[in-house]
Amino acid sequence: MAFELPALPYAYDALDANIDAQTMEIHHSKHHGGYVAKLNAAVEGTDAEGKSLEDLMKNVSKFGGGVRNNGGGHFNHSLFWNILSPSPATAPSGALKEAIDKKFGSLEAFKEEFANAASTRFGSGWAWLSVDASGELAVSSTPNQDNPLMDVAEQQGTPILGLDVWEHAYYLKYQNKRPDYISAFWNVLDWKAVEANYAKATA
Asked: H or E segment at 113?
């Protein structure tokens, strides 16, 4: 079964005040679409064919760079689109809020640590909030299209929140001002979606 580009759960212009419509359209249809097409080409006729995206990520060291780069691009963006919303829940609640307070002290302290991971990632990459093997929350960043689910990641875990800090994610609106883009991200982050990811990761 070939991998497919998922439809966005909102219109390209739905986040326009924070992420412009042109960036959203190019990012989704061209960049993410390109990763899906190249991933399908990379797995065709190999041991990777027929495996789930999660299985590919967890065992990515067994496959070539085409699976790592394009599989990561597909996985990362699929998570990213689904934690954004034009009507976001602007703060976490329940078990996730408790876990954030326990690990980081407060939501603001978490945001500061996460923003630092995102802003200091050299070149292209991602910042993450993940659940590690012990069930603890962890902030990290990865280069290129790597993610914490990969067996090659320095900080491994199940990602529940990710921010794309490749320039194509923000350059049209923010140019070189990555910190401004990171700040705007909180305005469209749907904590309900992150809570659902956390519940699944800790089940």
From this structure: helix 107-120
- The model scores a pTM over 0.85: yes
CA distance 128 to 139: 6
List of residues 6+ apart from 146 with CB closer than 8 A: 68, 72, 125, 126, 152, 153
Q: Which long-range contacts (CB under 8 A, 24 or more apart) does 59-65 make?
A: 59/151, 60/150, 60/151, 60/152, 61/150, 61/151, 61/152
Site of tokens 């500061």: 112
How far are the Cα atoms of 67, 81, 112, 167, 193 from residue 33, in angstroms, in the given order? 15, 13, 32, 17, 23
The answer to whether 60 touches 148, Cβ cutoff 8 Å, is no
How does the average pLDDT of the chain come out, rounded? 97
- Taking residues 132-140, what's their average pLDDT? 97
The per-residue pLDDT for 168 is 97
**Cα–Cα distances in angstroms (integers) from residue 51 to residues 6, 57, 133, in the given order:** 18, 10, 22
List beta partners, residue 113. none
Q: How confident is the model at residue 89 (pLDDT cuts 50, 70, 90)?
A: confident
